[in-house]
Backbone:
């Protein structure tokens, strides 16, 4: 429906990290202090690889790890979330096992997009740069299996819901006009 106005609010994109502390108690942190121009980037693996023969015939090959993802979180150097990610990294790298994995959720609460991974770890600790301007620390969180839904940010009508349903999907009722 092209006549419906969509609304995107970047302040409504939230990133939540969940882990267990040394005593087994659940902990949670909402990421703050993201960079000025980019909040987060969710980057998946390709679901298919291609092989092209000498005569141009193409075969697609299923990639069984297509649901792995890198989630890049660019933070201002002053963000307190740097401390959380740094400590998650340090705790994990010292243990060198899977005991210190955490969960990550990225949600656009002004729309229908949601990304979740429960086996996450900090794969890339950023370099530190200091200068006369605000610098960015780009943390890369790797997720072993990403579950997600990419959706829009506008109300939809019954015909759109029927199209999504025909593909096996659902649309939450709060988005249906």
Residues:
């Amino acid at each position: 429906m092209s006549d419906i106005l969509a609304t995107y609010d970047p302040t409504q994109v939230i990133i939540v990290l969940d882990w267990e502390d040394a005593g087994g108690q659940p902990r949670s942190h909402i990421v703050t202090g993201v960079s000025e121009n980019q909040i987060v980037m969710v980057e998946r693996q390709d679901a298919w690889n291609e092989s092209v023969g000498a005569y141009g015939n193409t075969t697609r090959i299923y990639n069984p790890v297509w649901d792995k993802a890198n989630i890049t979180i660019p933070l201002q150097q002053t963000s307190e979330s740097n401390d959380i990610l740094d400590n998650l990294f340090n705790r994990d790298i010292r243990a060198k096992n899977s005991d210190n994995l955490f969960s990550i959720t990225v949600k656009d609460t002004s729309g229908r997009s949601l990304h979740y991974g429960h086996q996450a770890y900090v794969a890339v600790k950023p370099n530190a740069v200091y200068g006369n301007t605000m610098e960015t620390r780009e943390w890369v969180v790797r997720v072993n299996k990403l579950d997600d839904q990419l959706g829009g940010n506008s109300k939809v009508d019954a015909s759109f819901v029927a199209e999504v349903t025909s593909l096996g999907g659902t649309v939450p009722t709060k988005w249906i006009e």
Q: What stands out?
A: Residues 13-150 form a domain with the Pnp Oxidase; Chain A fold (CATH 2.30.110).
